[in-house]
Amino acid sequence: MLQAIGLTSARHRGLQPAVDDLTFEAGPGCVTALLGAPGSGKTAALRLMLELDPGRGITYFRGRALHRVAQPAREVGVVLGDVPGHPVRTARGQLRMLCAAAGVPASRADELLDTVGLAGLGDQRIASLSPGMDRRLALASALLGDPHTLILDEPAEGLDVREADWLHGVLRSHAARGGTVLYTTSDAKEAARAAGQVAGRVVSIDGGRLVADQDVVEFARTRLRPRVAVRSPHAARLAAVVSREARAARRSVEVVTEASSSRLSVYGSSCAEIGDTAFRHGLPVHQLADEVGDMGPAVSHVVPGGPARRENGADGNGLSEAEAAGTGSDGPNPVGSGPDRAVTAGPDPGRAEGCSPAPNAAGPDLPPPIRRRPARGPLRPVRYELRRLFGVRTTALIMAVAVVASAGISVLLARDGRTPLPNVLAAWPSLLPLPPAAICAGLLGALSFGDEFRYPALAAGRGTVPRRLGLLLAKLVVSAGVALLLALLVVVASAASLRLVYGSDLIRIPQNVISLGVSWSGLTVGCAWAGLLAAGIFRVTAAGVAAVLAVPVLMVPLVQRMPKAPTARSMTGLPGRLRELAWPHWPHETDRWVLAAMRVVAHPVGTALTLSLSVLICAYLFTSVRGRVRW
Prior knowledge:
alpha+beta; five-stranded antiparallel β-sheet; 20 helices; 15% strand
């Protein structure tokens, strides 16, 4: 059961909130449609339920708020718009990445691809999928954790009739298994059609406020009315004749002129009566059909032959009576459904119990439930980050560019014989602010969080996301590992290039190899973390790259210009004093590593990088606490 209580959007610059004190329920075994015109606040209401936007009110999922659900992926599946994933990622890779985030087996991805009819398109890129395939993949993403509740925003928008019918069948099948389904739509006929074969409800909103909360049969009776659609080149004359004969016969007939001057909608009559009237008066008729019209907002229409009056207009896209079967008074009755209520002050616990799966709710077979509990622990976000990082070719391409460029630069630096060997192996000429390896490591770190906001794979599936701390730690660990791997590959490639071009005499192991190794590793890892944190703060990849380049361009000159005391004190013996204070005591060989780390921090670049990371960490924590956003 889903209970939304008092949902109210935050006000912006004195404007009215998009959602204003909205309260309703979506019970288990039901397909509940949240109906409203574009701009009525449907999407804003869903985002408030999922705690994606600031506001007031609370939403309970089977009695618990979303942030208190231990395994959100087993509770809520979400579809907001298109598939939120990198366009070059494959459909199977996208689902496996989300499987790692949700803690479900990777085989679940293949099960869902088969369920939604994409078994043969698993290796297809997301950018090449059609709108219908894209919506199927989004639904598969929502079903990964076998959730109890499905929340979908305009799932059938832009789909043809066949795709929409398939989607409605999936929703009805999920409800028939006892699940809760809530989806938004702006088409009243679609709301009646989707929920008509299951004990469903339609919640109508306008301006962010609740207008009506009805079962689907009552909704079809009050909102959808049978009509006769007439198209004639003499529509005005025909409307006048029909109105005049209806008044003479004292019958209640309403004639509405559509936007097109050649089309009429006649309520309270039949095709036979309209056809006989047109034949008697010699008026040609090009269309005559029974439809079910959407009684939308009231607009003014002029009934020919009478005074101007205000009628409920129809949209001109009718639903045939055969298609509307089951949505009228002769349709299936929901078990235990109560009367319609124009406005509800609060949730009605008894109504949800009346929503039960209908025996005739047939639809596509859903995948079997997950037989083992989702994996929990620190490896969940790490697996997700690894699949996200290596699921696209960008990572491999950046690393290859860094290795090739470093090898070429090292050969050029060793040619004059004046550049020190460590700088040659790192491919760091004095003209560059940073070596290519450090710049590429920073770029990979910036993409780690930048792509998260540009292609938000986790934003729509709010319930499947590890908490912010776990995701941040996973990104730090994975980016550090990739940076160390890149640093090693660059040194190996540079050494191999020098050996190939100049022979083995040039390659000699220096005595301070440990200090150099720590310095080189710290530089690449520090650049990766600087790019990652800056991209996480400003939510854009360019900010991460700018933070990496700001270290040598701005911070290093600032550190070098700091005034130095004429007699500086020495920190000799600090490792020994630290060993005396620490428990347990580390071996004496560790002193060399401590000294190497101290030399790295004492270097201008190391000091600048340390200061930059400290500022970025503080800013990241501040924005996280201030925004109260969990990942």
